[in-house]
Amino acid sequence: MSIQVEAAGEMLAGAAVAQEIAGGNGAGAEADASKHAHGACANCAAPLQGAFCHRCGQAAHVHRSLAHLVEEFLHGILHFETKAWRTLPMLMLRPGKLTREYIDGRRVRYVSPLALLLFLLFVMFLVFSLTSPTVTVGEV
Fold first, then answer.
1. Tens place of pLDDT for every residue, the chain, 140 residues?
2. Predicted TM-score of the model (pTM)
3. For residue 133, which of 9, 45, 53, 110 sits 20 to 30 Å off, Cα-Cα?
4. What is the rounded distance in angstroms from the CA atom of residue 97 to the CA atom of residue 74?
5. Which residues lie below 8 Å from residue 86, measured CB to CB, with a gap of 6+?
6. 3-state DSSP of 45-98
7. Which of 10, 29, 23 is nearest to 67 (CA)?
8. CA 29 to CA 9: how far, in whole Å?
9. 101 to each of 31, 98, 112, how far by Cα in Å?
10. Distance between the two ends of the chain, CA-based, in angstroms?
11. How many CA atoms lie within 13 A of 125 on its CB side?
12. Type and span of the H or E element at 124
């Protein structure tokens, strides 16, 4: 239970820091983003002509709020890429075919091996941290 309380406290501290960086009430981030939408690209300083930079491709509207960060995190988890839904079942049911397709050059349909490894390591450590018993100093 204390881990969840600590995590909630860290989230609140992060929110306070993000709000302070954004300019106190968060209005600074929105004004800053709208300034970039009509001026220069935040990435390469090219003049913007639409919703995306014509030189580097970055979106003109850069979200800098904690709410957007949470939204992106949830989107990444709940709307798991289509590539992952193709890769994971093939990895479990037909790993040889997945490997052969990757070696033969048919790679666009599947998640890259390095990205898949890093994601699965993250999931493994998350599961271990949530399921491992906590040991206090006196119990050792």
1. 455 546 555 665 565 555 555 554 444 444 444 444 468 888 888 888 888 888 888 887 777 788 888 887 777 666 666 788 888 899 999 999 999 999 999 988 888 888 888 888 998 999 999 998 776 676 65
2. 0.41
3. 9
4. 31
5. 109, 110
6. CCECCCCECCCCCCECCCCCCHHHHHHHHHHHHHCCCHHHHHHHHHHHHCHHHH
7. 29
8. 24
9. 48, 5, 12
10. 21
11. 5
12. helix 113-131
- Of the candidates 111, 77, 62, 114, which has an alpha carbon nearest to the alpha carbon of residue 91? 111
Q: How many residues does the chain have?
A: 140
Looking at residue 51, what DSSP letter applies?
S
**Which two three-digit tokens encode residue 101?**
């397709």
For residue 28, the SS3 value is helix
Amino acid at 66: L
Tell me which H or E stretch contains 86. helix 82-93
